[in-house]
Q: What sequence folds into this?
C-alpha cells in the first residue's frame, strides 16, 4: 500500500499527541508500517503543535513535506490555514471551526483573520468543517474534542477496518472516560460525509 | 512483542535490555524522556537527575569503573558541560560498559545552537554510533555496550530530535543481567590520570581507533545495500530515511558506526559505484572523513545545506529529483503562535516590573527566557546555562551605569542556578561584583516539562530527599544583601528592585513561588468589569493568553477567559481603573 500521510495541527494542550497515537496504533493493528513525528519542548506553553502520521507498507521518512499530505486534520482554524500547503492534489482538509487566539492576537498586535473558513472552503480540495468543541460538549466533556476529530478523520481512512478504531481507543484512554471518548468518536464520525 | 516507540523510549528500552545498572542525566530537550522512561518503566535501573551534565557523566564513569554497565544522557549543548570528563575517560577506558547518549537538535527546535556533536567523538577519539529509527535506537544501544566492553572505550551514541521524537515500530527483547564484581578493583595506573599514567594510555587510545576501524568493516552496524551501481550514497542517522525515499534505486552504504570510518568498506563501496554522494545533516562530517581516505565525493555539502534539518523535499530540490508538486501556497502573514509564559506564571510579574524599569536584563536558560518575547520584551541576552550572572558581572566591570535604565539585572531559575549559576555567583561575590541578581525559584525544572531538582524535595525515583533552599545557599556563599520577594506583588517587587538598583555592591533577590503548571496552583478566575474598563490595553501588555480584547457596542474592552485564568492577579494590578477583580 502506498503511504498515507496525515498532518495534525493544533495548539499545545488540545490533545494533538493523543490523537496521533490513536491514528498510529490503528495503522499498526491493521498490520501496516507506521511512523509518527512531532516536535515538542517549548510548544506546551501555548505554541503551535504539529504531528505527522504516515501509514503504509514500508515507511522511510517520518516527515511529511509540503504537497505530500492526503489529509490535514486541523484542531484549530488558524492552524489549519497555517498547514494547508502540506495537502497534495486531491487531498482533504478536516478542520475544527472553534478558535483559540494566539498571544499575538490577544495582545492586540495583530487581528485573527476573519476569512479563514471561506478561504479553506474555496481550496480546490475536499473540505470538511465541524465544531469539535461543541460536539464534545454535547457528549459530556470538551476535553474529548480531540477524539471527536479522530472520529471525523476515521471516515476517510477507508483502508482501516471500522472495529479497529474502538479497540485502539479502549487501549489508549483511561477506563473511566472510555464511554465518553467512544461517544465523542461516534459524534465526530457521524458529523462528516 | 512489537510496540510503537519514540527514539527516546527505544533508547531507554535498549538500556534496560543491556542490563544497565545506573543512568544519570540532566534534563534537556530532546533527550529528557530517556531518563523519564527508565525511572517510570524499568525499576531494575538506578536512575537520577544530576545537577548538571558533567556530574551526570562522572557518576556514570564511577559506576562503570566499579564494574556496572552505565549510561549518561544529555542534549547536545550539555556535552559542552561534560566535555572535561569526556576527553579523559576516553584514556581510562571502562570496566562495565559506558555509553554517553547525546541528542542533537538540528533546526534548533528547542536550543540555543545546532552544534554537530560528532566532532566530540572524533576529538575525544571514541566510537560514534548513530541510529536511523527506533528499532535501531534500541538494537544499537545494546551493540554500543558490547563495543564499549570489547574495546575498553566509552561510546558516544548520537541521536537527533527527529530520531528521539519520532515513533516507529520496535520488536522488544529481554533484559540480560550482568554480574557485578565482588570487590572494587584498584587499577590505579588505568584510572588515575597523572601524566605518567595518561602518557601510557594515549597510544592505547590510538591503537584502539585502528582496531575499531577494522571492526567497522564486518560490524552489523554498517550495512551495504547494492542496487543500481550508477549512484552510491553514503549516509547515516535520519538522513538515511530521507535518502531512501528520494533515491529508491541507488546503492547505499548506511553507516551506524560513523567514527572511526570502516576505511576498507568505504573504499570498496566507492570502487563499485560510478559516482559517490554523501547525504548527511548539519556539518560535512562523514564527507570530510571519506575525503581523508582519498575517496572522491562528487556531491555532498557542495549541494546540500549545512544549516537546519534535511527532509525528502530538500533532497529532491538539491539533487533535481521530481516528486509530489506543492499545489497550495503557504499563507503569508498569518498571526504567529509563539510559546508564552503560562497564565499565572510567577515570571510574568517580574518581567512586567523589569520592563517598566527599563534596565538591561542578562538572561539564562529556562521558561523565563520567554520574557524576551513581546509583549514583555524584557530580556536582552541569553547564551548558556549559568551565564546570566557571570555576564552581568562582566558588563558591570567595564561599564559604569549613570541611571537605573543602564543597570544590569541577572535573571536565573532554580535548576539553572544549581546547574552552574552557583559558581557564577561565587565568582561575582569573590571579585567584589556589583549589580542585582534575581533567582526565580519555582522549585522545578520547568521548561523541559517539570523535572525534580535539588530544591524540590524529591528524586527522579520519587524518593523524599533533602530540600536545598536557594536562599540559604545564597546567604551561605556570603552575600551581604540577600532578600526574598514575591513577584505577584508588583508594587513590592518594584520597590525592592529599585532599592537594590540604587545600592552599590551586590544584591541577590530570591522569589520562591511554585511553578503553577507543575504544582497546579489555582485560585478563583478574575473578571473584567466592562463598565470600568476603558480599553487602555495596559493589562494586555503582561502577555497572558487568558486575556483578550473584544468589541462591545463599538468599544474595545478587555476580556478574561475563565477556563485559562488561574487568578494570579498580575493583570489586576496594572489596571489603572480597578476594572479587574
A:
Amino acid at each position: 500500500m502506498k503511504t498515507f500521510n496525515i498532518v495534525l495541527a493544533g495548539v499545545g494542550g488540545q490533545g494533538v499527541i493523543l490523537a496521533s497515537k490513536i491514528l498510529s496504533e490503528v495503522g499498526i493493528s491493521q498490520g501496516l508500517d507506521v511512523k509518527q513525528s512531532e516536535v515538542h519542548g517549548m510548544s506546551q506553553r501555548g505554541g503551535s503543535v504539529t504531528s505527522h502520521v504516515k501509514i503504509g507498507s514500508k515507511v522511510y521518512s517520518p516527515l511529511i513535506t509540503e504537497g505530500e499530505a492526503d489529509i490535514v486534520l486541523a484542531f484549530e482554524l488558524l492552524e489549519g490555514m497555517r498547514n494547508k500547503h502540506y495537502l497534495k492534489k486531491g487531498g482533504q482538509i478536516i478542520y475544527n471551526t472553534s478558535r483559540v487566539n494566539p498571544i499575538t492576537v490577544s495582545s492586540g498586535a495583530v487581528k485573527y483573520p476573519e476569512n479563514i473558513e471561506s478561504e479553506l472552503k474555496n481550496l480546490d480540495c475536499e473540505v470538511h468543517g465541524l465544531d469539535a468543541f461543541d460536539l464534545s460538549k454535547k457528549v459530556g466533556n470538551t476535553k474529548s474534542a480531540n477524539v471527536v476529530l479522530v472520529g471525523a478523520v476515521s471516515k476517510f481512512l477507508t483502508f482501516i477496518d471500522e472495529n479497529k478504531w474502538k479497540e485502539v481507543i479502549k487501549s489508549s484512554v483511561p477506563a473511566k472516560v472510555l464511554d465518553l471518548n467512544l461517544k465523542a468518536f461516534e459524534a465526530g464520525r457521524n458529523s462528516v460525509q | 512483542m512489537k510496540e510503537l516507540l519514540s527514539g527516546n523510549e527505544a533508547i531507554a528500552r535498549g538500556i534496560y535490555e543491556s542490563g544497565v545498572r545506573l543512568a544519570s542525566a540532566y534534563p534537556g530537550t530532546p533527550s529528557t524522556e530517556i531518563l523519564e522512561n527508565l525511572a517510570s518503566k524499568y525499576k531494575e535501573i538506578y536512575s537520577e537527575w544530576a545537577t548538571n551534565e558533567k556530574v551526570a557523566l562522572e557518576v556514570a564513569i564511577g559506576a562503570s569503573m566499579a564494574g556496572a554497565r552505565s549510561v549518561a544522557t544529555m542534549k547536545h549543548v550539555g556535552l559542552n558541560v561534560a566535555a572535561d570528563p569526556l576527553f579523559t575517560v576516553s584514556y581510562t577506558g571502562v570496566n562495565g560498559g559506558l555509553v554517553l547518549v547525546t541528542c542533537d537538535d538540528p533546526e534548533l527546535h528547542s536550543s540555543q545552537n545546532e552544534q554537530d556533536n560528532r566532532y566530540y567523538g572524533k576529538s575525544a577519539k571514541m566510537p560514534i554510533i548513530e541510529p536511523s529509527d527506533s528499532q535501531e535506537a534500541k538494537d544499537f544501544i545494546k551493540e554500543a555496550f558490547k563495543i564499549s566492553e570489547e574495546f575498553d572505550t566509552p561510546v558516544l551514541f548520537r541521536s537527533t530530535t527527529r530520531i528521539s521524537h519520532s515513533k516507529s515500530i520496535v520488536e522488544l527483547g529481554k533484559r540480560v543481567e550482568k554480574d557485578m564484581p565482588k570487590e572494587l578493583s584498584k587499577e590505579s595506573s588505568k584510572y588515575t590520570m597523572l601524566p605518567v599514567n595518561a602518557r601510557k594510555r594515549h597510544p592505547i587510545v590510538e591503537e584502539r581507533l585502528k582496531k575499531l576501524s577494522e571492526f567497522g568493516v564486518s560490524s552489523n552496524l554498517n550495512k551495504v545495500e547494492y542496487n543500481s551501481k550508477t549512484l552510491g550514497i553514503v549516509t547515516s542517522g535520519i538522513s538515511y530515511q530521507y535518502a531512501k525515499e528520494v533515491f529508491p534505486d541507488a546503492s547505499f552504504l548506511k553507516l551506524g558506526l560513523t567514527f572511526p570510518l570502516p576505511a576498507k568498506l568505504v573504499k570498496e563501496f566507492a570502487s563499485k559505484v560510478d559516482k559517490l554522494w554523501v547525504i548527511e545533516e548539519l556539518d560535512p562530517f562523514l564527507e570530510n572523513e571519506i575525503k581523508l581516505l582519498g575517496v572522491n565525493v562528487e556531491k555532498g555539502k557542495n549541494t546540500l545545506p549545512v544549516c537546519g534539518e534535511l527532509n525528502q523535499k530538500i533532497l529532491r530540490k538539491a539533487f533535481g529529483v521530481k516528486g509530489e508538486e506543492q499545489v497550495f501556497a503557504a499563507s503569508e502573514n498569518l498571526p504567529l503562535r509563539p510559546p508564552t509564559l503560562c497564565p499565572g506564571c510567577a515570571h510574568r510579574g517580574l518581567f512586567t516590573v523589569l520592563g517598566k524599569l527599563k534596565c538591561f536584563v542578562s538572561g539564562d536558560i529556562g521558561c523565563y527566557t520567554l520574557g524576551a518575547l513581546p509583549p514583555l520584551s524584557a530580556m536582552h541576552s541569553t547564551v548558556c546555562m549559568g551565564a546570566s550572572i557571570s555576564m552581568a558581572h562582566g558588563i558591570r566591570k567595564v561599564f559604569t551605569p549613570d541611571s537605573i535604565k543602564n543597570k544590569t539585572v541577572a535573571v536565573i531559575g532554580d535548576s539553572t542556578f544549581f546547574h552552574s549559576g552557583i559558581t557564577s555567583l561565587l565568582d561575582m561575590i569573590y571579585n567584589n561584583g556589583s549589580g542585582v541578581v534575581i533567582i526565580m525559584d519555582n522549585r522545578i525544572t520547568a521548561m523541559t516539562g517539570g523535572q525534580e531538582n535539588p530544591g524540590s524535595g524529591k528524586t527522579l525515583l520519587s524518593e523524599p530527599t533533602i530540600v536545598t533552599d536557594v536562599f540559604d545557599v545564597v546567604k551561605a556563599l556570603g552575600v551581604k544583601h540577600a532578600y526574598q520577594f514575591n513577584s505577584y506583588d508588583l508594587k513590592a517587587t518594584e520597590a525592592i528592585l529599585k532599592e537594590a538598583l540604587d545600592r552599590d555592591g551586590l544584591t541577590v533577590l530570591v522569589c520562591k513561588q511554585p511553578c503553577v503548571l507543575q504544582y497546579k496552583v489555582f485560585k478563583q478566575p478574575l473578571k473584567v468589569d466592562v463598565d470600568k474598563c476603558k480599553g487602555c490595553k495596559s493589562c494586555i501588555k503582561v502577555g497572558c493568553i487568558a486575556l483578550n480584547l473584544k468589541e462591545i457596542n463599538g468599544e474595545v474592552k478587555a476580556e478574561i477567559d475563565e477556563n485559562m485564568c488561574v487568578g494570579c492577579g498580575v493583570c489586576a494590578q496594572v489596571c489603572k481603573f480597578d476594572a479587574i477583580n
About this structure: Residues 195-218 of chain B form the longest helix (24 residues). The radius of gyration of chain B is 27 Å. DSSP finds 20 helices and 20 strands in chain B.
